[in-house]
Amino acid sequence: MNKPQNTAIAVILLCSMAAAADVHLNVYYHHAGPLAGTLKSDVPLPLFDADANHLWNRIFAAFYIRPRRLPATNEQAAMVRYEGGDVIEFLAWGTTKYWSGKAVFQKVNPLLDEFLDGGGAKLISNPLKRVVFQHDLWAVYDHLIDLNNRRIGDLETRTRRSLLCLEIAKCMQQLALSADELKHLPNTYTVAVNSGAFVARHNFDATVNYLPHALLDESDEWVEIDFYYPDMHEDIMGRFISLHARSFLGRSHYRIFYRFPEGRKQVVAYLKDLEEQGIDWKHAAQFGFIRLQNDVPQIPVGTEVLLLQQMISMDDQLRPVPTNIVESVQFRAYRNIDGSGEPQTNTGVGMNVLDYRMKRHLLFDSLSAGGLEREPEGELQYRVAIGGSNPRAPDWGYEDKKVLFQQCADCHMSARLQRLGVASVPSIIHSGGFGAGAMMGVSRPVTPDQIGVRGKRVARYKSRHESYRRLLEFLGR
Question: 211-229 burial string, b = 16+ CB within 10 Å, else e?
Fold first, then answer.
């Protein structure tokens, strides 16, 4: 793309985002009582356009605001909670029937018809909004088609899902940008660290909003890592996909970074020592899961880990394409590796946790803070991505609703589950079992010529996934 075209895209981005500037969503939410943190109703939010009744806002609300009716208890009266809103995860778990029901179909089908018959894709030209809206619809499509692929529900239900999938696929196609336009979307992590909203040093103070400013630079501090995979003739690359990316069916790709107190050399040396001395490879080969030796070399106190979630889009040639739009940043800093309460951390188990999520109202407000907002530590949150497709997951939530640091500590710092120290960093080795790559080696630092390898691999994985093959069928491609 030449320079005038780049300038044109930048002008479109800023001008159309200005229409949504200064949108304050607080008025739409409860801030006290048993409904705190939930929406007051299912009315559309002014996200994609300042007019809440804009078609894009109405479609988004129909899919991303979900009522939950709670029966009366001894403690409180019956009530309706309106969950969702400006969130990155679609509220659908493994046994959820809500989105497959007649009521939802009758509500959303006319909206999708209005979009397709009335030129809905032309209502907003802003490339960033088009990418995000397409991605929002993609999550709905994947949920519905995955249920059909597994033949869940009777024929009438599956037919209803197929009709919605057809219309959603057409909407996604009409929203698609060219690969060159996707390439020139902003790197929202860089925008975030340049915005002044995040400090460059945390000093183990979990009260500050911190993002490492040198994360994406060629730095002696932060080391991006990738799974070890052998140089084999067999086509096995689809197996080297992280658990998180699989949970999103390849709609997001993840980059993983480590920082040790003594920098890159310490990270590289540690990974080498761990592979040579710390793992029972015979057990891993036989059972598909890691087992650490009793005298395993431990990560140093002060270790930091960052998980960067970035969006996958579909271009106008119907190809999955990784983008630089950040959906979430999850950061952990270890003050101890034994799970004790001292030194003090915001989890209480030796690990500080910071979690930032993309918010559309910020992203579309001139890229305010790179579109990122910190998740509150004390508010109860639904866990959708990890385990959400599990058939044993309930209709609402997975293993109940927990506050942020409870969820993080369960996976990454739990004495009960024997996840302390190096065992709390599952990305240090591909720990998904034989079906997801088995135990072939400890992760390796990404070299300069490998930057972006994870995103390309996830896009390739998505292009071969059954959900995507069905999308191409719907579009006659």
Answer: bbbebbeebebbbbbbbbb
Q: What is the 3-state secondary structure (H, E, C) of the chain?
A: CCHHHHHHHHHHHHHHHHCCCCCCCHHHECCCCCCCCCECCCCCCCCCCCCCCCHHHHHHHHHHEEEEEECCCCCCCCEEEEEECCCCCCCCCCCCCHHHCHHHHHHHHHHHHHHHHCCHHHCCCCHHHHHHHHHHHHHHHHHHHHHHHCCCCCHHHHHHHHHHHHHHHHHHHHHCCCHHHHHCCCCHHHHHHHCCCCECCCCCCCCCCECCCCCCCCCCCCEEEECCCCCCCCCCHHHCCCHHHHHCCCCEEEEEEEECCCCHHHHHHHHHHHHHHCECHHHHHHHCCCCECCCCCCCCCCCEEEEEEEEEEECCCCCEEEEEEEEEEEEEEECCCCCCCCCCCCCCCCEEEEEEEECHHHHCCCCHHHHEEECCCCCEECCCCCCCCCCCCCCCCCCCCEEHHHHHHHHHCECCCCECHHHHCHHHECCCCHHHCCCCCECEECCHHHCCHHHHHHHHHHHCCHHHHHHHHHCCC
Q: Distance between CA 10 and CA 115 in Å, rounded?
A: 26
**Residue 104 CB coordination number (10 Å):** 17
Place of tokens 């270790």: 303
* Cβ–Cβ < 8 Å for 246, 240: no
Instruction: Give the residues of the chain that fall short of pLDDT 70.
Output: 1-23, 230-238, 288-289, 387-394, 397-401, 430-440
**What pLDDT sits at residue 221?**
92
| The pLDDT of residue 59 | 98
The domain limits of the chain are 3-183, 188-466
pLDDT of 360 reads 97
Give the per-residue pLDDT at 3.
Answer: 40
What is the reported pLDDT for 228? 79
- Identity of residue 446: V
CB 224 within 8 A of CB 446: yes
What's residue 392's pLDDT? 67
Q: What pLDDT is stored for residue 432 in this prediction?
A: 53
